[in-house]
Automatic annotation (TrEMBL):
The keyword Phosphoprotein does not apply. InterPro entries: Emc6, EMC6-like. It is found in: Endoplasmic reticulum membrane. Belongs to the EMC6 family. Pfam families: EMC6 (PF07019). One of its GO terms (biological process) is protein folding in endoplasmic reticulum. Its main location: endoplasmic reticulum. It comes from Cyberlindnera jadinii (strain ATCC 18201 / CBS 1600 / BCRC 20928 / JCM 3617 / NBRC 0987 / NRRL Y-1542) (Torula yeast). It is a multi-pass membrane protein. This is ER membrane protein complex subunit 6. The chain crosses the membrane at residues 44-63, 83-101.
């Protein structure tokens, strides 16, 4: 059985799509955490659960449970690469929404 050929343009497109989904959902979940007035560890737990949930749902919906067909290193691409980017957007929207609800 031959390994499927992966094209760099397709992998780039899939990565950009995943980044867009992570960017959008990090803002949504950050605002949700701020509105819910989550603080400290509860907020960070919400962050990691939401990141894992979004990545898992992306795997189910976009990759049809076969992420190795769409990414070079699926676990790294889905669960590690965008974590810092997700964290910063989440924190920014979390603190903004938290401050707006407090005032």
């Amino acid at each position: 059985m031959d390994k499927p050929v992966k094209y760099a343009q397709s992998i780039q497109h899939n990565t950009k799509t995943l980044q867009y989904v992570h960017d959008f959902t990090s803002l949504i979940f950050g605002i949700s955490a701020g509105i819910l007035q989550l603080e400290s560890l509860n907020g960070f737990l919400f962050l990691f659960i939401s990141f894992a949930l979004v990545s898992s749902l992306f795997t189910i919906s976009h990759c049809q449970l076969q992420p190795s067909r769409y990414f070079e290193s699926p676990l790294k691409s889905l669960y590690v690469d965008d974590l810092a980017r997700y964290l910063t957007a989440f924190l920014m929207s979390w603190t903004l929404a938290y401050a707006l609800v407090q005032s």
